[in-house]
TrEMBL record:
Transmembrane segments: none annotated. Keywords: Transferase. The keyword Transferase applies. Pfam families: CoA_transf_3 (PF02515). This is Crotonobetainyl-CoA:carnitine CoA-transferase CaiB-like acyl-CoA transferase. Gene3D superfamilies: Crotonobetainyl-coa:carnitine coa-transferase, domain 1, formyl-coa transferase, domain 3. PANTHER family: SUCCINATE--HYDROXYMETHYLGLUTARATE COA-TRANSFERASE (PTHR48207:SF3).
Length: 395
């Protein structure tokens, strides 16, 4: 393995999404990530399909698309944590690791002798990261959580979707498991910061990451809008709550996204739609005025953009650097010339299908480039290899 973390080994006891997402980031950065899975079943997401990866003969395999999205670069070791032998094996592996990732309910691994205090006693410099729905303390610490419910509980669905009085109005979740993904990102940041501190002090760390905390944290401008105004933000569809014009607009043959971010871009937009006078209109001359007078502004822009085709508007707006774009389907994303140029889609060798598609890390490092040479593992694929490599005999 290559990359800036090629000297780090991670024991990944997590499953589903948030923990595995963090593990995949660490693996992409070069860490040796050893994923512990239940014999015969594995990570819950292995069965979350269809779709399943087609095997070399075209028949569906047991490798779900969901699992394949979050487990690249890892080695799978099948161990039964419910048995004393399995627990001892995991303890033995932990002694060779720098990081432990886990997302069991609070207190579960301590009952197996695999909690932070247990492992710290034999490896004081271990960085141990626990990912849960609600954290290690508080009235909900023992409750289970999933991305969907945290999107609801954490306020995200209150600001996502159309207004209740608009067609299709009502609360909406985000189209990807964004809380899981962001939780995995924050977990990774916590682990990396602990590793950086360990390099200076020699001390390990316990990282406590809660999905609800993460969701509250990334309410970002919507939270601050409320805290400084006292007004609860509501759902506004595609319209930005603070910057305008930013919305979806219908063209003659499709839809266009405008993301005008400052007064200079707005002036250029006005020129492109042949309404240059709007840039000096006191109702629209500044962003604050545009937000206050949004209904009038949107009506003008909508009427103008209906007069021509999507490709025409994209060309005109891009020519004067007004941020805009089409609404691509996912197949269109992977056909985009910029996405292709950046090689975001790779195909890695896989023992079941020959190759497996992977959407790779967006991180680009010049001096320690990332390598993507290990596909998501089959269940228990590396059990013998890892135990032999670490000198661990038996399960």
């Amino acid at each position: 393995m290559t990359g800036p973390l090629s000297h780090i080994r991670v024991l990944d006891l997590s499953r589903i999404m948030a923990g595995p997402w963090s593990g995949q980031i660490l693996a992409d950065l070069g860490a040796d990530v050893i994923k512990i899975e239940r014999p015969g079943a594995g990570d819950d997401t292995r069965s979350w399909g269809p779709p399943f990866l087609p095997a070399s003969d075209g028949a569906p395999s047991k490798e779900s698309g969901y699992f394949l999205a979050v487990n690249r670069g890892k080695r799978s070791v099948a161990v039964d944590l419910a048995t004393p032998e399995g627990q001892e094996t995991v303890r033995a592996i932990a002694l060779h690791c720098d990081v432990v990732l886990e997302n069991f309910k609070a207190g579960t691994l301590a009952r197996y002798g695999l909690g932070y205090e247990d492992l710290k006693a034999v490896k004081p410099d271990l960085v141990y990261c626990s990912i849960t729905g609600f954290g290690q303390d508080g009235p909900k610490a023992g409750h289970a959580a999933y991305d969907f419910m945290i999107q609801a509980m954490g306020g995200l669905m209150s600001v996502t979707g159309e207004r209740d009085d608009a067609p299709g109005g009502g609360p909406q979740k985000v189209g990807v498991p964004i809380v899981d993904i962001m939780t995995g990102m924050y977990a990774t940041i916590g682990v990396l910061s602990a590793l950086a501190r360990r390099a200076e002090t020699g001390e390990g760390e316990y990282v406590d990451i809660a999905m609800l905390d993460v969701q509250v944290a990334f309410l970002a401008n919507q939270a601050m809008n409320y805290l400084v105004s006292g007004n609860a933000p509501g759902r506004s569809g595609n319209r930005h709550p603070n910057i305008q014009p930013q919305d979806v607009f219908r063209c003659r043959d499709g839809h266009l996204v405008l993301a005008v971010g400052n007064d200079g871009q707005f002036r250029k937009l006005c020129e492109v739609i042949a309404r240059a006078e709007l840039a000096d209109d006191e109702r629209f001359a500044t962003n604050a005025q545009r937000v206050r007078n949004l209904p009038e502004l949107l009506a003008i822009i909508r009427e103008a953009l209906l007069a021509d085709d999507l490709a025409v508007w994209l060309a005109r707006l891009e020519a004067v650097a007004v941020p805009c774009g089409p609404i691509n389907t996912i197949p269109m994303v992977f056909d985009d010339e910029q996405v292709k140029h950046r090689a975001m889609l790779r195909h890695l060798p896989h023992p079941v299908s020959g190759t497996v598609p992977q959407v790779v890390s967006p991180i680009r490092l010049r001096n320690a480039p990332l390598a993507f040479d290990r596909a998501p593992p089959t269940l228990g694929q590396h059990t013998d290899e890892v135990l032999r490599e670490l000198g661990i005999v038996g399960l």
